[in-house]
Write a sequence for this structure.
């Protein structure tokens, strides 16, 4: 029975993520068109809704080309690693409180891990392998440069990410994600929801910036900077293998948004929802919808940033990571610890 | 054979198989990648032993950190794929002696140690706080010494890298 419940949860979450990727790509294209005063894809299906479906079919039909001097096994392995990492990270994120269904209480979280935050950090650090391997095995200078850049970037910003989270961990006193969300359901001064964004604003900002860098999104998309590197680490990938990298990038975006929501924006918590007088089941559904809604808002912000800011230069990226973000997050952790010690 | 045993043997095979490739592969790149799976398998074994914190740390430090650096070193070596590691067997007698001594010691330790088997089930929820408390109380000195050693290594690496650029 437990296995059945667990596999249902996995199937539902994966299906939801894959479907949202399809629409996320479309939303991104339409939104970028809006920002740049273009029209964007609007021909396939009503309002262009089926554009992404057409793109996926196109990717499936394309020939898989591997460069002659490439390292075939590693060239195949790289997208698999990327997508596996992207798919497994979401496992520990609570997407709702417990729900009553057919007489059993089901926790809305795939894996209830004691050290959920560390799990996320560990798994995302594995994502480097996908990009590095792809860059190196393609036997192409641009790919290699992209792969190296991505590893350097991800390793540098992982530090700030981890240190930014320390503030949150100190406040919650636990590494469990569900408890961290529960702590945020309280109210400050009687009316302000105790979300960590209000309690840890510095950590929120640094974490958010680091999340951009970790997902290789503009303004930090140095690994695939088109004007400099052709396509970066995925220059030599075609068809479905390129599709897997693409899918992984968007899934990482969704997961990063989900982590931001969980750690800083109160997770599934909808302020004052308990005043509505809903039944337990309806409240659970409302909480899941709240969680999804928050993710969508963060994602829209992600996209808006991408089409608003120019790309960093590589040395700017590195000096921002090591000279600004790292001291800032360290100071934040120290100040948080001191305040907690004092009171 | 229950599920636990199946998973144990799966991880054991992954670990030992990849470790064999690390040692015997004639290609440095494949060795480095096999090491990835070996470390991963060990992390899986830690999870089976209810040492979740240790498993995650293994991933975070060894797989996500140190091995990336190893790969950097391997990949940036020019024409690494043309390098064939050919070794001849020389100095048979001392080699056998050292091998015997080493494996003898390991087997001796394995047999003579009184392995601690916990009777009550471990409360996983408490392992991470316990490790944290012990690192900052009982084992504070070794912990700090380890961090100083790492710092020294870091400064040394920076020194060497800087000097090369000047000359």
């Amino acid at each position: 029975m437990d296995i059945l419940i667990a596999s249902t949860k996995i199937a539902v979450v994966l299906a939801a993520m894959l479907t949202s990727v399809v629409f996320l790509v479309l939303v991104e294209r339409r939104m970028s068109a809006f920002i740049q005063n273009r029209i964007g894809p609007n021909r396939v299906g009503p309002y262009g809704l089926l554009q992404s479906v057409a793109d996926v079919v196109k990717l499936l039909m394309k020939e898989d080309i591997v460069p002659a001097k490439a390292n075939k096994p590693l060239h195949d392995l790289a997208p698999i690693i990327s997508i596996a990492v992207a798919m497994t990270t979401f496992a520990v994120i609570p997407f709702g409180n417990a729900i009553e269904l057919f007489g059993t209480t089901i926790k809305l979280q795939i894996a209830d891990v004691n050290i959920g935050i560390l799990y996320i950090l560990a798994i995302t650090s594995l994502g480097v392998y996908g990009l590095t391997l792809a860059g190196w095995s393609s036997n192409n200078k641009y790919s290699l440069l992209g792969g190296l850049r991505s590893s350097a970037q991800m390793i540098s910003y992982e530090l700030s990410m981890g240190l930014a989270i320390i503030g949150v961990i100190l406040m919650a006193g636990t590494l469990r994600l569900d408890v961290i969300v529960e702590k945020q359901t309280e109210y400050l001064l009687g009316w302000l929801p105790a979300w960590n964004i209000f309690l840890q604003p510095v950590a929120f900002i640094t974490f958010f910036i680091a999340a951009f860098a970790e997902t290789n999104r503009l303004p930090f998309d140095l690994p695939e900077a088109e004007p400099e590197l052709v396509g970066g680490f995925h220059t030599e990938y075609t068809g479905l293998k390129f599709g897997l990298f693409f899918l992984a990038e968007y899934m990482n975006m969704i997961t990063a948004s989900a982590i931001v929501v969980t750690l800083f924006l109160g997770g599934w918590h909808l302020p004052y929802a308990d005043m509505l007088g809903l039944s337990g089941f309806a409240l659970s559904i409302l909480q899941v919808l709240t969680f999804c809604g928050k993710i969508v808002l963060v994602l829209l912000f992600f996209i808006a940033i991408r089409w608003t800011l120019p790309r960093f230069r590589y040395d700017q990226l590195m000096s921002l990571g090591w000279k600004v973000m790292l001291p800032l997050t360290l100071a934040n952790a120290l100040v948080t610890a001191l305040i907690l010690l004092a009171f | 054979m229950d599920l636990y045993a199946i998973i144990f043997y799966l991880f054991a095979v992954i670990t030992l198989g990849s470790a064999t490739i690390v040692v015997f592969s004639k290609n440095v790149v494949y060795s480095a990648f096999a090491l990835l799976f070996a470390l991963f398998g060990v992390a899986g074994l830690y999870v089976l032993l209810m040492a979740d914190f240790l498993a995650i740390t293994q991933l975070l430090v060894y797989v996500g950190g140190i091995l990336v650096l190893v790969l950097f070193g391997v990949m940036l070596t020019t024409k690494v794929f043309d390098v064939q590691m050919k070794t001849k067997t020389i100095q048979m007698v001392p080699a056998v002696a050292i091998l015997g001594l080493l494996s003898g010691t390991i087997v001796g330790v394995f047999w003579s140690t009184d392995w601690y088997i916990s009777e009550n089930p471990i409360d996983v929820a408490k392992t991470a706080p316990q490790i944290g408390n012990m690192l900052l109380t009982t084992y504070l000195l070794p912990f700090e010494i380890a961090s100083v050693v790492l710092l020294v290594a870091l400064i040394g690496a920076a020194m060497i890298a800087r000097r090369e650029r000047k000359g």
Summary: The beta strands of chain A are 99-101, 104-106, 187-188, 192-193. The longest strand of chain A covers residues 99-101. DSSP finds twelve helices and four strands in chain A.
